[in-house]
Every structure is written in C-alpha cells, then in structure tokens.
Q: What sequence folds into this?
C-alpha cells in the first residue's frame, strides 16, 4: 500500500509551483460558480420564469460563454494572460453579486450574458498561463492537474450550494459566488504576479500564424465539437435514461455519476504519466479516447441488464481521461505557431458550441426517436469524430514527410 501511495504521489512530481497555484485558483473559482447548477431552479422557483424563458436564459448563457472565450483570447494576445485573469475574476465576482438584483426576464438574460462574457474570458488566459508555467515535457500532466481542480470544484460546488440555499436562501448563493471569485483574485495577485513568478516556456513568435489559417487545427476543432456533443449526453440525456428506462433511484444515479469523478481523481494522473512516457502520439490517444466514449453508448443497446450502465460509465470515463488532457496538450502545442490566446480561445469555444447544441439536440432526439435510436446517432457522431482525428493524423504525417524531403 505504501508503494502504491508513493507511486501515485510521484506522478505529481516535477510540476512547477506556479502550476499548483493556478490549480488552487481554478479550484476556488470552479467551486465558487455554484449558482450555475441551481440556475434553472432559481429562475423557476424564485423568479417564476416559464420553461420557454428559462431556455432563452440558458441560450444567453451559452452565447456569453462563446463570445467571452473569443474575447479572452484576443485580450490575452494583446495585454497578456495575467491582466486578463485578474480582470475576469474580480469582475465576475462583482457581477455575480449584482445578478441577484435582476428580476425581470430581459434584464436577467442580459445579466447572465454579461457574467459569462467576463467569466469565460478567464479560460483562454488560464490555458496560456498554464503553458508558460509548464516545462514542455510536463504540459499534459499540468493540464491533468487543472482538470482535477475543476472536477473537485464542480463536485464541491453543488453540495456547498445546496447547503447555502437551505440556510441562507438563493441570495446567499450569489453573495458566496461573488466573494469566492474575489478571493481567487486575491490569491492570483499575491502568488502569480509576473514580478514574482518565472515562466518556463515563454513562447515569442515573430510572425504569428492565425489559428483560422491552420487547417490541422480547424479539423481538430471540428472533432472536438463532435466529441463535446457526445460527451455532454452523460450530463443531460443519460440521467433520464437511467431513471425512465432502467428505473434507477436518484441515489443510484448519483452513485453512477459520482463514480466518474472518483475514477478521474484516483486514476487520471497515473494514467497520463504512463501514457506520456509511451510511444503513442497525441492524435492516436485522442482517437482511442473517442472510440471508448462512442462504445459507451453503443453497448447500452445490446442488453436490458442494468449492469451495462456501469460498464458504459467506465468506458466513457477512461475515454474522457485520455481524450481531454491530450487534446488540450495538442492545442497548446499548435498555439506555439501563432497567437496563443487565439488558439486557446478557439479550443474553449469548441466546447461552448457543444454546450449550446449538445444538450438541446440530445433532448430532441430522445423525445422524437427514443433512447435506443438516440444512442445509435450519438455513436455515429463519435465515429465521425474518430474519422476526423484519423484524417488529422494522416494530414500531420503527410506534412511531416514533406518537411523531411
């Protein structure tokens, strides 16, 4: 047991102090966004919005996220990641506090749009900072550490949020959200001020290449949008499948979904450390991750045995653990060719787009075609994602051979 624990702890060695601080800031920030899981409930119960109005609010949320990610990338390239992160965190904190005072449909739509516009400008800047604070050989593990922080934040956030609503009401939720963002800003200013920190991989490109002109990156982005749409079904349509088709209780559903976070927490870092030291390419690992995720849906139609749900969750979790860190590392590698903020903004936007269309499309498919047909269609989307990653791999190999000639 001692050897196992030491081997596990060794997978975290070699990461810079700045990466650890960035992970803590991300953890505080993500745990702080506890309004989000309860947003639709708040709109229905406290503001008496109709389902249609709630849908429009969520659309404003998604659009704000897309524009915020794009804007964050542009600002990062112009004024640097540190200033963007400070501005985003403190402004998000103040806007979260102000959001509770908007009670009409139009003002709340504008308010949530503005919150997400500012909040998601943090993501591209954080990815560029992560790249700068990581040695080239540690980038994938640095991304994995950030993912652990995000997963812990998302796990703790709803639990703390539920407690706050019970004891302080929804108003308390907005105040705590705002204060945690401001607290994260204080940590950022004190530990990651450029005057106090050192960069390990500060890339300066003389003639930066536009991400929009990078064909390989555009193929990659399209694959990531598809992967995002497939992956997100586990957090929208899949719980309904557990409940309606397999008659699982809320406790059973919570245990299966909780298994995902637990397995990521325990296995992701050792798995990534092992894969980093293997001969596999990033595109090859992304392809394998997408295959596992697609299979997790396909196998559900093979049997009515409820144990298949656990097998499906295992396949999806390991698919996610492989695909996400290496896709992020791939994006950071490509970003060295041009404007880093622009590249990382587009990477963030790919998943924002998946959020806008994925949940809605999944729900509509289930409503019109049923769960079995929906899983076949989702599997086809995963297959298309795999095909695009294969095309990407072939394209990159062809370009590599041309350079060698």
A:
């Amino acid at each position: 047991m001692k050897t196992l624990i030491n081997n596990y702890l060794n997978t975290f060695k070699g990461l810079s102090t700045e990466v650890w601080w960035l992970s803590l800031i991300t953890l505080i920030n993500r745990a702080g966004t506890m309004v989000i899981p309860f947003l639709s409930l708040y709109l229905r119960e406290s503001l008496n919005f109709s389902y249609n109005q709630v849908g429009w609010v969520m659309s404003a949320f998604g659009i704000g996220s897309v524009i915020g990610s794009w804007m964050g990338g542009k600002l990062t390239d112009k004024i640097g990641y540190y200033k963007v992160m400070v501005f985003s965190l403190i402004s998000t904190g103040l806007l979260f506090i102000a959001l509770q005072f908007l009670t009409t449909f139009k003002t709340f739509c504008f308010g949530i749009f503005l919150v997400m516009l500012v909040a998601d400008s943090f993501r591209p800047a954080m990815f560029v900072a992560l790249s700068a604070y990581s040695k080239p050989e540690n980038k994938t593990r640095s991304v994995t550490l950030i993912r652990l922080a995000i997963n812990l934040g998302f796990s703790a956030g709803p639990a703390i949020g539920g407690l706050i609503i019970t004891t302080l009401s929804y108003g308390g939720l907005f105040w705590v959200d705002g204060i945690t963002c401001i607290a994260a800003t204080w940590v950022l200013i004190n530990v990651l001020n450029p005057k106090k920190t050192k960069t390990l991989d500060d890339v300066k490109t003389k003639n930066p290449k536009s991400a929009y002109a990078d064909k390989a990156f555009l193929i990659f982005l399209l694959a990531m949008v598809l992967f995002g749409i497939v992956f997100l079904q586990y957090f929208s349509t899949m719980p309904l499948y557990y409940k309606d088709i397999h008659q699982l209780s809320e406790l059973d559903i919570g245990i299966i979904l909780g298994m995902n976070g637990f397995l990521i927490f325990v296995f992701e870092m050792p798995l990534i450390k092992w894969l980093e030291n293997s001969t596999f390419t990033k595109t090859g690992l992304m392809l394998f991750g997408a295959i596992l995720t697609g299979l997790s849906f396909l196998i559900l139609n093979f049997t009515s045995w409820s144990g298949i749900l656990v097998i499906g969750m295992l396949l999806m979790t390991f698919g996610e653990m492989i695909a996400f860190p290496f896709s992020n590392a791939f994006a950071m590698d490509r970003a060295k060719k041009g404007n880093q903020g622009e590249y990382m903004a587009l990477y963030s936007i790919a998943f924002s787009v998946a959020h806008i269309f994925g949940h809605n499309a999944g729900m509509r498919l289930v409503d019109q075609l049923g769960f079995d047909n929906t899983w076949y269609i989702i599997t086809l989307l995963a297959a298309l994602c795999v095909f695009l990653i294969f095309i990407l791999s072939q394209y990159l190999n062809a370009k590599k051979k041309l350079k060698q000639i």
In short: The longest helix spans residues 340-404.
